[in-house]
Design a protein that fits this description.
Blueprint: H1 2-41, H2 75-162, H3 171-182
Organism: Arabidopsis lyrata subsp. lyrata
Region (Disordered): 150-183
Protein name: DUF1068 domain-containing protein
Amino acid sequence: MAKHTAALKVGLALLALSMIGYILGPPLYWHLTEALAVSATSCSACVCDCSSSPLLTIPTGLSNGSFADCAKHDPEVNEDTEKNYAELLTEELKQREAASMEKHKRVDTGLLEAKKITSSYQKEADKCNSGMETCEEAREKAEKALVEQKKLTSMWEQRARQKGYRDGATKSTVKSKSSSQVA
């Protein structure tokens, strides 16, 4: 019984720790990722010499204007990227939460089944114990009846011997003795 209580305490402690991790884990994760993202984006600006003339010149109609401002930091693009990243992380968090809830349901179902099976085994054990008690009572009664029967048999044997019965005597000799005693 003490082993069961210790196992129950350990199980409850693990459950409490996992619930604390489940509740506090995501906010801590987000704070850490934000701190790392801030430290990663605060790097120095790119150093490139865009003013130097290239070896090949591209006609103005075919040129791409994005190369002209290669060293510029575009806050809109950075903001869109962060929004997409946040959306992706939110979606992943929702998927993990759904998976966690499904797993929690399976564990609860398993726990309920285990409780049902335990209950049925306990009922069977109670029936077995009851049957054993009944058998034990019947055995004790039979022993008492046997003792009483032995006493009764002993008493009748004693009376028979007092009346002249002997072991190994035949009927004819017993009859002749009894008729001679009567006469």
